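S.,

Sequence below, as promised.
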Amino acid sequence: MAIAIEIQDYKGSGDVLINLGNVYIDLGRYEPAINYYEQGLEIAQNIPDIRMQAAALGNVGNACQIIGDYDKAIDYLEKSLKLTQKLKDIREQANILGNLGWFYYVTGELNKAIKSYQKSLKIKQEIGDRRGEAHTIGRLGLVYGELGDYQREIEHHQQSLGSSVLSVLNF
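The prediction came back faster than expected:
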């Protein structure tokens, strides 16, 4: 990073900071990871680089989830989602919506979880991501179970199983 700073390669510096955050996540050291991601985010905002901003926001959100700070995680991911919508990156939107669905689920915001999962599912179906589709349908089943709608939970898990089998068989 010293070289990137010396030659005033701000994008390179931002990328290095985000990569350092990734290494610290792999090491299980979440506070330094969040710190590096936030530094990368600051550079991305100053350049400005919307794609880097979205990545840094998403990374901070996911790291916050790991340490149990779901409110902060949701805040960062909602900001990342807005940027990915601006970029028209639908694959990343589907991933972020899925993560948000899970965070809403664990915080008890079940209606928001359903909406987020349904949006993610729609995108995954549009882009042909069968494995992601199966996963999302299964997560929707969990939410319905939490709501006490066991029939819908069963239906979603059965549908998820069908999608999973088909994705493994490459149908």
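Residues 110-171 form one domain.

Coffee later?
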